[in-house]
């Protein structure tokens, strides 16, 4: 059984990765329904939070039904991060996660996200200060290192554990790799195999099939899998992995009815949560995967992703339901 602080997260938990503009409350709720054991918010800027920037503050919203949920923050300034911890605590998350892995220039150039991989002592001291500043478990999400020549993740993980991190999720790429190439899980398993490590080590990067999740568990011996892209528009990924673990067989794919139902609820929850304009816009990226496999889908998809009017999108769902009734997904 893996535990994050005192939270029992089960045997080989599946974690929904933090993803900007994706891991919002509606999507997290859908993933939770389909078996995600822990969900994380997208990253939230500590500088934004302390300025009370509305966009950052809105990202703190959580639904009761998605627990345990971690709120992820990023930043490189000690005071801002500590103040953010206090702000985040008021939303009542179960976990606070620190983003030490975001590779994008605007974050890295301020020394935050993966930028901190160039300053390991700061990474460790920030983590330590945050652990001391809250009773909530602090988890860390990071990458293997800055570049191939500076991978010290075994040592870094040990130091993070020693200052009180409750779990570490490691994306098997360096900052320099961004999202290119294949994630390398071997250094992650070296972290796990370090006899001094006792906190959970979660693997991340390219878990895109139940078989790959099983490999992460059985071949690499990790404590859980953090799943990002494979879940976008496909919250059933969690249920499929769990089914495969239980039975050794592939679950039947979700039916058209399930897909339509998820798409409708996703859109409705998004509209309820962030209003029609943003709700319609930000749910768009999921539709391709929701309906993947349906032949000649382009025309329907076009309707879903071009209109700003929710009624048009709901109407497109109705059409799909009518025109493809009984369609069997492979
Ligand atoms: C659209 C998108 C947004 C992301 N936003 C974040 C983020 O806010 N915080 C973070 O730690 N990682 C973020 N990531 C990285 C993912 O959490 C994850 O580490 C990465 O996608 C590799 O996992 P995967 O192969 O399962 O997708 C993002 C990735 C994507 C594709």
TrEMBL record:
Listed Pfam families: Dus
Entry's EC annotation: 1.3.1.-
PROSITE patterns hit by this protein: UPF0034
Cofactor(s) of this protein: FMN
Catalytic reaction equation(s): a 5,6-dihydrouridine in tRNA + NAD(+) = a uridine in tRNA + NADH + H(+); a 5,6-dihydrouridine in tRNA + NADP(+) = a uridine in tRNA + NADPH + H(+)
Sections of the chain in a coiled coil: none
Domain DUS-like FMN-binding: 15-312
Root EC class: oxidoreductase
Record's keyword terms, sorted: Flavoprotein, FMN, NADP, Oxidoreductase, RNA-binding, tRNA processing, tRNA-binding
Family: Belongs to the dus family.
Main function: Catalyzes the synthesis of 5,6-dihydrouridine (D), a modified base found in the D-loop of most tRNAs, via the reduction of the C5-C6 double bond in target uridines.
Name used for this protein in its record: tRNA-dihydrouridine synthase
Record organism: Salinimicrobium oceani
Encoding gene, per UniProt annotation: dusB
